Amino acid sequence: MQVVSVYLAKIGKLHFLNELFAEVPIPEDVHNEVVVDGLIIVKSADITKLKNVPIEGGEKAAISLALDQKIEDILIDEARIRRLARVLGLRPRGTLWVLSKLYDEGFLSKDDLKESVFGLVQKGYRIREDILVELLKEIG
Known about the structure:
It is a single chain. By secondary structure, the protein is mainly alpha-helical. It folds into 2 domains: 4-95, 5'-nuclease (Rossmann fold); 96-139, no CATH class. The protein is built from 8 helices and 4 strands; from the N terminus they run ααβαβαβαβααα. The protein has helices at 4-10, 17-20, 28-31, 57-68, 79-87, 95-104, 110-122, 129-139; strands at residues 24-27, 40-43, 73-75, 91-93. Strands 1-2 form a two-stranded parallel sheet. The chain has a two-stranded parallel sheet with strand order 3-4. The relative contact order is 0.15.
């Protein structure tokens, strides 16, 4: 599963989530991938409402948790899951959105942002070339 927190953790930027959000609830399935004390709050997710939806357990749990907790923004990267989240009335946000927001709010410098984006790619994060080029143009 490609969850934002997994990639942020891989590039050493997970701690910045507390600059953008008061808390970051995650389903227990995702907790098994990323464990952070304090910032991330583990909550149980009831996936029965989405039992017939053909997505993996962690992704299903993340969407179920967002719906149950009435959390509009969901941090997830995979395009197929983002489309499903939109259909269900959620606002999917990805790793690049988090990094851009951190840059916009002054938590990352231009060089930190570039380093983070290239670090993501080196860690296996898939990004369309046109999106990468546009982001790099925007930040100079």
